[in-house]
Each structure stands twice: as C-alpha cells, then as structure tokens.
Amino acid sequence: MAVSSHELIAGFADPVQASQQVFRAALKVMSEPGTLVEIDYAETAPKGLDLSTWQLALSLLDPNTRVWLSPTLAANDAVISNLRFHCQCPLVDNPFDADFVIAWHSELPLLAELNWGTAEYPDRSTTLIVQVPALSDEPDWTLSGPGIEHTRSLYVAGLSEPFRSDLTRSRQRFPLGIDTFWCCDNRMAALPRTTQIEPFKKAEEAC
Amino acid sequence: MSTATGYNFAYLDEQSKRMIRRAILKGVAIPGYQVPFGGREMPLPHGWGTGGMQVTASVIGEADKLKVIDQGADDTTNAVSIRRFFAHTAGVETTEQTAEATLIQTRHRIPERPLQADQILIYQVPIPEPLRFIEPRESETRKMHALSEYGAMQVKLYEDVARFGHIATSYDYPVMVNNRYMMDPSPIPKFDNPKMSMMPALQLFGAGFEKRIYAVPPFTQVESLDFDDHPFEVQSWDEACAICGSDHSFLDEVITDDNGSKMFVCSDTDYCRERVDQGFVGTAADLSTSEQETEQ
Ligand SMILES: [Zn+2]
User: Edge-to-edge strands of the sheet including B175-177?
Assistant: First the structure.
C-alpha cells in the first residue's frame, strides 16, 4: 500500500524535544511498571491510533524497526500512510518478525506467536503496543517486581481471559519474554517482562 | 533555551538517540542484562566516557538539571568539561547539588546523599562484562549469562579469601541483579554497592567502547557476591572527615603540606559542603580554631 497524501497529518511540531519527552515518559512507565502517564506532545493522531500510540511511534520507530499491525490497523489507510511517511518503518506480515507489534486489544496475536528473544539475546524480542478501551489504577491486577516498591494496581480493559493468563504465566520464562505498552487515548502504562501479575484479592472481611 | 547552532540537540543525531533509547528500554525490562547497541561513535576526548555520554545525550531534555561527578567531585577537569558540553549542546541547567539534579552522570562514585524517585544516575562504564577476565570470548560469556553459570566468579573471589584471608576486590565488585544477572557495577568502590539495591532512582550504565547498555530499575534488588563464611563487607575508616566530621562517608586521603601531613576528607564534595552548611565540623576546623587562639 502506498502513502495516501490526503490521509497525512502533521507529526510533532518540535520533533527533537517531543521525541525526547515521549521517550522519558516511556522510560518512566517501563521502569515503574503500572504507573500511568498522560502524554500530550502531539495534537492529533491518525484515525485508528490512540494519541499515546501515535506519539510512541513517532518517538521510537524508524527504518530500523519492523512493525506488525493488527488486521484493522493494517487495513487502515491513514495508519499505514502516516507510519510510512513519518516513521519509515518497514511493515511485516508475521508478528514473529516484528520488533514492535501495534494491535487492538481485540485483535491480539497469541503471545506464543511473538518473538520472546533468545537465551543469549533476550533483548531481541517483540515489544507489544496494545490499544485498550480503558486503563486505570483500579484494583484488578496486583503488580510486583523491579520498579515497584511494594505492589501497584493496574486495570487494563478489554483483554481476553486466555491472553491475561498467558501474560501472567509468561513470567516463568524470564529472561525471555514480551514487554508491553498499554495505550488508551493520551494515557499510557507499561509492563516489562519482569512484572509479576496476580489477580487482586479483596481484603478478607473481618468475622 | 539557547543551544549552539549547527549542533544536534545534545550533540547526538536523532537516529542514534532512537537506537540508544530503544536499547535503554530493553535494559530496564531485563535488569542487569547487557544490551548491545549500534550507532555512531561520539568523537570525544579520552576519559569522558563515551558510553555514559551517549546515554546522557539520549536521555537529557530541556527540563533537566545535570550534575556530573568524577571520583565524587564536581570540579575535576572531566566533570567540568562534560557539564559544559551539555550546557553548550543542550542548553540545560547544571548543578553541583545532588538534591536538585534530575540527571547525574558519574564516574567512580555514587553520591552519599540518598537518591530519590525520578532522578536518573548514569554510570560511565569502561568494561561492562564482569566475566571478561575469566573468559575473553563474548560468545562464551553470553552462554554463561544465559545459563546463570557464575561459578567461575565465585572461584575467583574465593581465591582471594585463600590468599589474603578476605575478599581483596574493593572496586568493580560484582553484583547479582534481581537474582538473575551478574553485573559489573563499574569501577565504584564496593562501599557504594549497597546503595544500588532498592534505590528509588533509576540507574543506567553505558559502555562506549563495547557498545553495551544495562540498567537497574528503581526498587530492584542488587546483591554483592559473597560467601557464608566471608560475608560482603564495605570499606571503613578509623578516621572521620577532617572537614565535616562525617563518620559514614567514603574518605579520600589527601596530603596537606610539603611535610607529607595527611588528612581524610569526604570523596563526595557536595555531600561534605552540605554538611558544613548544616554546621557540622571536622578536626581540620578544630585545628584552625586552635591556631587562631594561639595567635591571639
Ligand atoms: Zn566531609
């Protein structure tokens, strides 16, 4: 699919500064898993992409990053044209070949279909960027691990039960694994492969 | 913000920054693991630590306040040059105060003042691979890390115990990060190793020659290697700092006159200054007071 010029929107007004600030937001959420941030360095996103997804793409993607898009996004002319024009990232047909997967929560590939890295190079793995309908600190998942002093709670809406349990169990294969950004409108959170996920337990009622 | 015209912001080109940024995110996700990165060399004088410079250049933004230390001091030639470099190419504010810095690039020390959340400590690393002197081949050390095969390092440290009766390694003392990866903490004194564990600040490590980046996220366990019968111990001194009286800092021995008189002072100059400002005094102050009294 070629670039459709009528679909093109502006990128960052100040690409150098905005890329740096979005990266720092990404660094914060990846190093403090479950922390929510809002990023507002771009005014609009191509139709089909959340504002946070679009800003992550502008900040992190380039001709050196292979990207796989979930079916609805891959069929979206505005998404394809703007990623091609602004990021020049090659698009791949198989999620296993991707450095970054950008997907709707309802169109996620199986975790097993992604690249988890190798024992000697666990960094050569796919990073997942998932667009979800809601993202908050409501108690749903209880998170622990590096970057979390005690525990942190996170609610990521719209994930299927099998995906949630696959992600929880994937921690047993550390250092192999998938690092995930969750995006919703201008909000963003992340879970690196080190984060242990447990379902929130309501405090036992006193007798 | 005024930056020198004709330069990229913070000197590095945007494509190299993106590559390094992606490597930093991987490093954070796999604590203690060395992420290889590509990108161009930063043509800098020896001693500036190109790895630390590349990480700082990729992380720094207009809102940052940068502190640079070398052996604990802000006023060495290297520290001053690096600070000026980023003030010039990124137009950022610089500071000597640990408390108000958002980014701290360091060689050889961790500040004495406990670091806080949202601060980032960036280490210059000469040799990132802790197993390199045991195994020169990268393909082999990769396998050793993959299999957590760290017995050779335990043997090396135990040879110390057999020879000297204690573990003689006092700098570059190897650590285990998050119970998984053995990591070289860069040539800091082992005195600083305990500060790395459960630190609220993010720690990033850059090795320019070997092009490796690694990281310790905030609140991550970092343990120094030891043995049940020879537990890890940090350096300690019988003296206190002659300037501020601190009995808990890493001390440097300095010669004070032509007769070879010596005194011990904090290696962290900002920490020492902060204590003096708070009214703490050491024996050097007592000496000068008594001299004045004698003169009167
Ligand atoms: Zn002192």
Answer: B181-183, B175-177, B222-224
